[in-house]
Specification:
Length: about 325
């Protein structure tokens, strides 16, 4: 197996089994490990196996061809999908699965292991995704939380499955211990097909431009009235990616001085009746939202900075049917 050491900035230094060719019976297998995914090419010159019956983990090929030169199956899968398993050792993070064929196949069953090994960073810790529990993140003397909720917000949701077009209740809050009173804002939210964002992740913007609920321009997604400044509620209209994959929500939570809102720290949504952006917490100051269709910068704050009291939270996977 040909192995290369690849150096990538701000990511893992990893060992990749790249373009390594193996033979299983009369088949040649090429494995190409990427940053967050793996591509596998199966070529059988004698066409001993129907390529459409092959599986990478539990996923069928993304491309199949049969001609006079033999048969070919191509697989592409992001890690942690298609029954790809993650194994963490002292020094490595390994994503592994196998190519198999059904036992009903007349030819000899296929079993070929596929693995991508990456060097583990010293401070690496597994991400925890449990959308049925509050996600708690500590930052100084603040604790941020975000979760799916029941329709009436009386408690945490009991399901992660939603009908297409239905409303998904979400609550985020900050628990303040000895800190001055703060208002919680959603600075940014993206929907993605992956639990960890990467350059090749499929994403759909929900909240951008420092607090603008851009999804409200074309859907029924809305912020809900606050019960307290330290909590923000969002009713998000369920949608599907064209690929039909599960949905992960990535949000940046920011706690801020409530008397110091500006165009860079706000909660805005689009009112389609009046065709204008509205500041949820004080409609009389909706001029702060006028930048939502351009670029919101905000002025520099003294004493409190977004970096000091902001966290990223992920909930999912959500199943949309």
């Amino acid at each position: 197996m040909l192995q290369h050491i690849v150096r990538m900035p701000s990511f893992l230094l990893f060992v990749v089994s790249a373009l390594a060719v193996f033979f299983v019976a009369q088949a040649a297998v090429t494995v190409d490990c990427g940053k967050n995914s793996v591509s596998v090419r199966w070529i059988d010159v004698n066409s001993q196996v129907d390529p459409s019956l092959l599986r990478l983990g539990n996923c069928p090929p993304t491309q199949v061809s049969v001609n006079s030169q033999g048969s070919e199956a191509v697989f592409y899968s992001e890690f942690l999908t298609c029954n790809i398993r993650r194994l963490v050792t002292t020094n490595e993070i390994i994503f592994e699965t196998e190519i198999t064929s059904p036992m009903l196949s007349k030819s000899t069953p296929v079993y070929y292991p596929v693995a991508c090994a990456y060097k583990r960073e010293e401070d690496w810790a597994p991400p925890l995704y449990d959308p049925l529990r509050f996600h708690t993140h500590g930052q100084g003397d603040l604790k941020f939380r975000m979760a799916l909720m029941k329709d009436d917000f009386s408690g945490v949701a009991t399901t992660t499955t939603f009908s297409l077009g239905s409303m998904i209740p979400i609550a985020a809050s900050v628990v303040q211990q000895n800190h001055q009173p703060l208002i919680l804002l959603l600075d940014e939210c993206l929907a993605s097909t992956t639990s960890e964002l990467a350059p090749d992740s499929h994403v759909y913007p929900l909240i951008t431009n420092k607090g603008c609920l851009v999804d409200s321009k074309n859907t029924n997604s809305r912020f809900l009235p606050r019960n307290q400044l330290s909590e923000i509620r969002l009713s998000l209209q369920a949608f599907k990616f064209p690929t039909g994959e599960d949905v992960y929500l990535h949000c940046r939570l920011v706690a801020w001085e409530p008397r110091d809102l500006d165009s860079g720290s706000k909660a805005c949504q689009y009112d389609r009746t009046s065709s204008r952006w509205v500041l949820v917490d004080d409609p009389s100051q909706s001029s702060l939202c006028s930048c939502c269709d351009t670029s919101c910068q905000g002025r520099k704050k003294r004493g409190i900075t977004a970096d000091a009291i902001a966290v990223n939270s992920v909930i999912g996977p959500l199943v949309i049917i």
